[in-house]
């Protein structure tokens, strides 16, 4: 049997919908969009609704894109870690490595008209929405070319043209905001939804329940996504929540529990949730995920969980490895191709870091801009308040 | 006695208590930093009153700033316990506990997160005794929160919200400047029969080191302290800002200006008499705080002193404060009321 690589992309003679069986013909890397169906490893658990099917429609191109995007996000977070330790990034830095499948799976199910709003662990969500690496690194280092012009920092990435409403420092504050976005979408008949993301720590905030009630009362197309990485900073879920079944906490709001380390399961759940929300109102998605780093760069992440636990999850559930295995077992790419891809990505990230390092810090006049519209004639003073006075336009 | 740390390389060295005439005591003790002094105070408070409790986010293992180290081990998980992430719930719960005659010592992890609890503090804690005609009260409530700039805190780990709380009759607002002061003031706040909001300057948690007496002692609330005597101008401040102000005073002295520095300690109710007496002596007043200038507590001090000392004032009251912007990220050095800004203001006030 010829196991030679087919250089042409047309493989129409042999275009079956392949399940988990091996194909004897090696497909050309990355360009095949013919559908493949993959079964998720873990079933969905539902509350007050039907579970979506475990068979996920995807394609080689998509799975390869998952791999590439997740590897890029992973590399970015690791680069951010080194930059922080080198004191080029200051302040707070909350890393997302381990949770990449969420950002990537969600994007695969939605469009840029659908809005996403999230907490402070937002670097990868920004990249998922189409943000550029150099914008992310510039913002982290507080430079002018950053996505928030250097004024936001790690916790405040935004991307208006991709309906990414950021990046919020106060835990849970983005939840009612997200429901408000959904209200606007319904009002404007956008046929779009809002994904409001929050963590297991924020799940105990009163404002979540207020927002849920309103969203359910008014049938808003709001999808509340609880990124359950099992630790609210240093507190395990069983110590902070009477009911750690976050997908059921909506009570009268339907919920779905999803394996958040499986990008395909995330895609399926988000697709299902979007259809549901447009017809029936809010739904909660609990994504069972895990972060390898501590809560932030000041947290080693090992005082409240064992290193064995962290390495165990990395070995068994790592989202990138999962996709790598899928790519290899379906002959979508070879080991070498994937390694080369990772090398390219590494270079891409390094280049972005170097470029970001070159960019300047914002001018000191930026301290006063954008507080009000056109800064409303606010008076600004120099050191002694007597000599130097400036009225901002 | 006090260790002046990193004066040249960091923002400031540290100002110890014990300069002025009315300092607490010149007793020696162990050399402790701010979080250890607060820790000691909490140990003493829990030891001396079996119906006192410490709770908040992550206090069980010692807290993110280590202020509650050793408490859970010593007094048990029924008296020192973690709460879920819900400030409104935590403070409301504390008010209820205090209403039953207990001492509830609540920790809000950063003062920037205190706003969900603002309704509980303003509408419940402050008004409980008043609206029940003294049948009930929550005097046993003490809310501790780290506040203030820390060099890299950004928007949500650097705020100074004291002005919001000074506007609420019914609660007290206390801010210590050093480890020795903190221990005494915290014990007074806990034992005071009124709800108290106690802001701890987080920059000083490790930076400030001082000799702190090991026994149980209290520093009275609503008594300001003149920590440096002078004749030309009165400077009023609280918390970490005093250290900056003291440096400005030392620099001003080299230029022949004699500055009197007052630590307000309690912002609500504040010691108007001490400040008034000082301004009547010097004729000039400068107030400095990290919080934004408009509506900051300096405005209240300025208005009151103007009422009481109008004819004695030689120059307008000067306020050197944070700028009217959200607490910035990379612009922190421009935003802060630095020593040079204060020095400039001292000179222009004196030369008015």
TrEMBL record, chain B:
EC annotation? 1.2.4.4
Q: Report whether Transcription regulation shows up as a keyword of the record.
A: no
Pfam families in the record, alphabetically?
Transket_pyr, Transketolase_C
Enzymatic reactions: N(6)-[(R)-lipoyl]-L-lysyl-[protein] + 3-methyl-2-oxobutanoate + H(+) = N(6)-[(R)-S(8)-2-methylpropanoyldihydrolipoyl]-L-lysyl-[protein] + CO2
- Cofactor needs: thiamine diphosphate
A Gene Ontology annotation in the biological process aspect, one of them, is: response to nutrient
Q: Can you tell which superkingdom this protein's organism belongs to?
A: Eukaryota
Keywords linked to the UniProt accession: Mitochondrion, Oxidoreductase, Transit peptide
Single GO cellular component annotation? mitochondrial matrix
Record flagged with keyword Hydrolase: no
Name of the top EC class for this enzyme: oxidoreductase
Q: In this protein, which residues make up the domain named Transketolase-like pyrimidine-binding?
A: 32-207
Which GO terms fall under molecular function for this chain's record?
Answer: branched-chain 2-oxo acid dehydrogenase activity
InterPro entries reported in the protein's UniProt record: THDP-binding, Transketo_C/PFOR_II, Transketolase-like_Pyr-bd, Transketolase_C
Locations listed in the record: Mitochondrion matrix
Q: How does it assemble?
A: Heterotetramer of alpha and beta chains.
Alphabetical list of PANTHER family matching this protein: 2-OXOISOVALERATE DEHYDROGENASE SUBUNIT BETA, MITOCHONDRIAL (PTHR42980:SF1), 2-OXOISOVALERATE DEHYDROGENASE SUBUNIT BETA-RELATED (PTHR42980)
What is the name of this protein?
A: 3-methyl-2-oxobutanoate dehydrogenase (2-methylpropanoyl-transferring)
Which species is listed as the source?
Answer: Capsella rubella
